[in-house]
């Protein structure tokens, strides 16, 4: 019966992709899709990112989308075993939206729900690179909550970096 | 007059010749300039093309470098461990327990086959040394395939942690307070508790999770104690005369709040009505009910859990183990990323079915100091009263990765 059930429902297989990167960017920029830019990370920037993530950051560059004072970032961070892909929209140095685009962990997927991610809206980065808003956790999803909180801090900090670059 | 006319004519002729010559020179220069500009345009286009090609090559190289650094073919490795020092005095028996123990050394191995099918395992060495006459054990606590059937239905098939309580499924040392795990979930549930079978997890809406599992059950025939902890077979040539069914509903739709309740039923925890020594006993159906709540407000968190067993059969009733109950409440305060303090009141009774005063109460007060978010030093004071009289302290080191 179990096998029959699996075979039948296999047709309904669903990717754990909740939104594509393109759709997230379009949504953030009111339907427009600006040309993607690339931020090549220097040593100091990688050090700061490692401080935020609490582990070494292996990527050499990060793609982002910029329009006016708004930027969009699609970042990965491992919760317990697998990377969680998160879209983050920053405007005027405040988070406008945080959305889990792909979730690959076995447990803790409550973090993809709006009731959790809405806590990040309007959050800013303090001088010590922390969020100025307290994020309530989810029991049993501690590591996923931590991953999203780190990515929120990272996106706000990256937004500052590209703002500095464009001013120069 | 004549001379003037001739001079004027000559001058005009000379001037026009000069103009013609200048125009010819200008035309030549313009043509040259156009040629130069055209060549420069060609050079610029060529440079642009080369720049594009170089950028593409750099991107491809960067992709290769990044992929090389993160390539793992979907295989993940993790783990946790905890080293304990216990210094406890049993005031009833005038004995001390002064002991150092690498209580758990655990490795996780996982493999993501594709976006819908995954493998996960947990391999554990308890008490550092295993073998005949040794204190420790090597255990396979988890080894299951997880398959997403749809957006809202996921199944686990294999050896998995039974969906009950707080610490049974999440027990990495940095995630809880106290050097040792709480005694209620240890002695009543009994954590850590794993079985083999199939579990369907439904998520009908965000923040609501329902588990329905059919799996191998307890077997108290080896010890006949009717204590759930003694009935764990650990999926090692486990008697399978009788399976068990576990259901759980969990609500986490409000950040900071978790409410959950589990029920488990097994028709016969003796696995056939006979103990290993040949004693014939009553078949004993067993039902576990447990519920817990967690609420976090800013830096303050409170956890509470209640669990009770109802076991049939004359033998269990004679021992007072037809009912076994426990509960705890744990308020905690996290000052910052480094320091958190807690207090926990635990009470449990594996003989709650008789009139004896067999309940044990345990109070723990302590501190977690985080060297890193995944590395913690722990200290707690412990006092057991009621059916026991023990006090002392525990020190621990824990990590996860």
What does this molecule look like?
The complex is a heterodimer of chains A (168) and B (401). Chain A is 35% helix and 23% strand. Chain A is of the alpha+beta class and 168 residues long. Chain A has a five-stranded antiparallel sheet, sandwiched between helices. In chain B, 20% of the residues lie in helices and 47% in strands. Chain B is of the alpha+beta class and 401 residues long. In chain B, strands 1-2-3-4-5-6-7-8-9-10-11-12-13-14-15-16 form a 16-stranded antiparallel β-barrel. Chain B folds into two domains: 1-71; 83-101 and 175-190 and 198-400, Porin. The A-B interface holds A 2, 6, 9-10, 12-17, 54, 58-61, 80-82, 104, 106-107, 109-110, 112-116, 119, 134-142, 146 and B 62, 65-66, 69-70, 76, 78, 108, 110, 112, 115-116, 118, 120, 146-151, 153, 155, 166, 169-170, 175, 198, 203, 206-207, 250, 252-256, 258, 294, 296-298, 372-374.
Which features characterize this protein?
A: 168 residues; alpha+beta; 5-stranded antiparallel beta sheet; disordered N terminus; B: 401 residues; Porin; 16-stranded antiparallel beta barrel; 3 helices
């Amino acid at each position: 019966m179990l096998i029959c059930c699996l075979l039948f429902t296999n047709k309904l297989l669903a990717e754990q992709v909740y939104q594509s990167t393109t759709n997230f960017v379009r949504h953030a920029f009111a339907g427009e899709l600006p040309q993607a830019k690339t931020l090549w990370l220097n040593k100091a920037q990688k050090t700061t990112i490692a401080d935020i993530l609490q582990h070494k950051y292996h990527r050499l560059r990060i793609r982002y989308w910029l329009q006016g004072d708004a930027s969009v970032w699609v970042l990965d961070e491992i919760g317990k075993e697998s990377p969680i892909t998160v879209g983050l929209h920053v405007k005027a140095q405040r988070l406008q939206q945080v959305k889990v685009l792909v979730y690959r962990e076995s447990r803790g997927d409550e973090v993809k729900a709006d009731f959790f991610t809405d806590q990040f809206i309007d959050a800013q980065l303090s001088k010590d690179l922390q969020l100025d808003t307290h994020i309530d956790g989810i029991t049993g999803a501690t590591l996923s909550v931590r991953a999203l909180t780190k990515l929120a801090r990272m996106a706000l900090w990256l937004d500052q970096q590209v703002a500095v670059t464009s001013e120069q | 007059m004549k001379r003037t006319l001739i001079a004027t004519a000559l001058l005009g002729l000379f001037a026009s010749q000069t103009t013609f010559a200048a125009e010819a020179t200008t035309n030549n220069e313009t043509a040259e300039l156009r040629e130069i500009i055209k060549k420069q345009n060609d050079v610029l286009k060529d440079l642009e093309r080369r720049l594009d090609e170089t950028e593409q090559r750099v991107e491809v190289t960067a992709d290769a470098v990044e992929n090389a650094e993160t390539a793992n073919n979907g295989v993940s490795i993790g783990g946790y461990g905890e080293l304990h020092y216990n210094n406890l005095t049993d005031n009833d028996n005038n004995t001390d327990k002064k002991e150092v123990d690498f209580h758990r050394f655990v490795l996780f191995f996982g493999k993501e086959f594709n976006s819908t099918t995954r493998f996960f395992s947990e391999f554990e060495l308890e008490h550092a040394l295993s073998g005949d006459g040794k204190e420790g054990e090597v255990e396979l606590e988890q080894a299951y395939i997880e398959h997403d059937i749809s957006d809202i239905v996921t199944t686990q098939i294999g050896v998995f942690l039974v969906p009950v309580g707080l610490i049974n499924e999440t027990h990495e040392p940095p995630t809880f307070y106290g050097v040792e795990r709480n005694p209620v979930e240890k002695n009543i549930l009994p954590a850590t508790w794993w079985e083999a079978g199939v579990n369907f997890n439904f998520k009908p809406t965000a923040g609501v999770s329902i588990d329905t599992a059919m799996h191998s059950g307890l077997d108290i025939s080896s010890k006949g104690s009717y204590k759930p902890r003694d009935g764990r077979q650990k999926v090692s040539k486990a008697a399978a005369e009788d399976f068990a069914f576990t259901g759980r509903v969990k609500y986490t739709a409000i950040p900071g709040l978790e409410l959950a309740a589990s029920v488990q039923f097994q028709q016969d925890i003796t696995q056939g009505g006979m103990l290993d020594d040949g004693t014939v006993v009553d078949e004993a159906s067993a039902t576990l009910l447990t519920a817990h709540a967690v609420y976090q407000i800013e830096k303050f968190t409170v956890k509470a859990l209640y669990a009770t067993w109802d076991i049939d059969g004359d033998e269990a009733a004679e021992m007072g183990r037809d009912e076994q109950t426990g509960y705890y409440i744990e308020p905690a305060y996290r000052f910052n990323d480094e320091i958190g303090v807690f207090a926990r009141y635990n009470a449990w009774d594996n003989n709650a079915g008789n009139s004896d005063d067999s309940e044990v109460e345990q109070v723990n007060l302590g501190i977690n100091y985080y060297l890193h978010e995944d590395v913690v030093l722990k200290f707690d004071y412990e006092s057991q009263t009621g059916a026991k009289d023990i006090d002392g302290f525990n020190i621990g080191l824990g990590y996860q990765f």
